[in-house]
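Design review, sub-item: ligand-bound model
Attendees: FS, YL, KQ
YL presented the inputs for the NAP complex:
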Amino acid sequence: MSRRKPNSSQLAIVNRNGGPDGQPIAKRRLDFGKRWSYAPALEANSYIKLRNRYQLFINGRFVSPKSGQYFDSINPATEEKLAEIGSANKGDVDLAVKAARRSYKNVWSKMPGRERGKYLFRIARLIQEKARELAVLETMDGGKTIKESRDIDLPLVAAHFFYYAGWADKLEYAFPGRKARPLGVAGQIIPWNFPLLMAAWKLAPALACGNTCVLKPAETTSITALHLAEIFQEAGLPDGVVNIVTGPGETGSALVNHPDIDKIAFTGSTEVGKRIASITVGTKKKLTLELGGKAANIIFEDAPIDQAVEGIIAGIYFNQGHVCCAGSRLFVQESVFLNVIRKLRDRISTLRVGDPLDKNTDIGAINSRSQLDKICELVDSGLKQGAQLVQSRARLPAKGYWYPPSFFTGVTASHRIAQEEIFGPVLSVMTFRTPEEAIAHANNTPYGLSAGVWTDKGSKIFKIVNQLRAGVVWANTYNKFDPASPFGGYKESGFGREGGRHGLLPYLTLG
Ligand code: NAP
Ligand code: MG
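KQ shared the predicted structure:
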């Protein structure tokens, strides 16, 4: 595990010229580690039944991949192998698309919305029943804390199925005077940061509208999608309505290139999203892209500072920074800069990094070695370009992939850490003087997914929000989700919305 030269205090301040105009930030020696130590509180996982091998889920059955090839899924907190996952090739993708097409034609598109809704309600209830087990699996396979998978991911997964179950028989009310028709077969590709939640965001609206699906989970986090497939079996979902093809990027590429797909929904990196856009352009395939972000969290001098600092912590650190809408750039009004930085520095020294199955853990494991390398490379670039790094000295486990909570001061807009997605628990802090300056800085990125505003003045919130080019703006809070609220980006963060009534549109044609 690489980390920047820790020193003897609880926080390593790698370069201490961290204030605005170069004034130093006072360094205090606080031993939060001792004051805040907790006894281990491990979530039980002895009852979890992991299979040695997970097969593909095609036409309602688990089938071995045509290639006969499997890849390992590991626990990033221990580097232990959890299971082998089937690797789907072009032939498997073709079988899955054919199964989806058959069930679209013969069953799902013909079924009244009321009946489709019943299946979705049943799936939502089964997810609730198995929520604890699914949360533990999500944490073991992906490295996120049990606090997050249990209290955020799983409740939202069930809520999404409940929400879209409710729309299945009300499409004529969603779009009054219009005739809503499904598109056909949807190919859906998702990333590793919210494996089940992204599956729910994709599957629930597509199915509610009468489409059938072929889902491709991320390579490092396929396990929970295959447990979800068992729930589909248990709910009696007709064969072929949902098919799951696991595998590397090539499996996703085979899905995108398949001629009998009507719609591609992709969540992932901007780089892959651009590639997919260039393949689907000029074809019959409809496309939605949910891509990267570099969100600005803006703190005005009149903001409730303690509350804002908690919002920053929740927005970037509690999920290892593995969130596309993470508040990864912090803009602080100059008059409160030192106050905010001191509080932030003290607060990150109390964050517990370690076993994600421990209920006290705040920051879990980085999802993969390659993601950890990416974080380290960007942090190195920040140091080389002259920014100053403040880093918690939390003790990191010997095995697994970890990164301590960190932030940079002395960042300028041209630094890579101010422009590129770090996707780790690393924040870039900058200052501003006027609201106009804050807006200009916040919009100065190729992305436009989300933002946060902290101020005591409601009028200021409205003024700022209307000028921010971001799909979601939180005011005096951060990272709050609800299935009824649409989510999506501007510019290189993609197009199309997921969630809410808007989330039905990408899966329908309106006559
Ligand atoms: P990624 O490399 O783009 O992968 C996303 C998915 O696409 C994975 O299933 C991946 O498979 C697959 N894939 C890779 N190459 C492909 C290709 N050529 N054709 C089709 N599919 C392909 O992204 P990631 O690094 O896993 O995820 C992190 C990124 O997702 C970040 O940039 C983040 O901001 C973004 N994200 C956005 C949102 C949002 O709602 N806007 C939500 C979550 C994440 P493998 O796993 O096998 O490579
Ligand atoms: Mg894994």
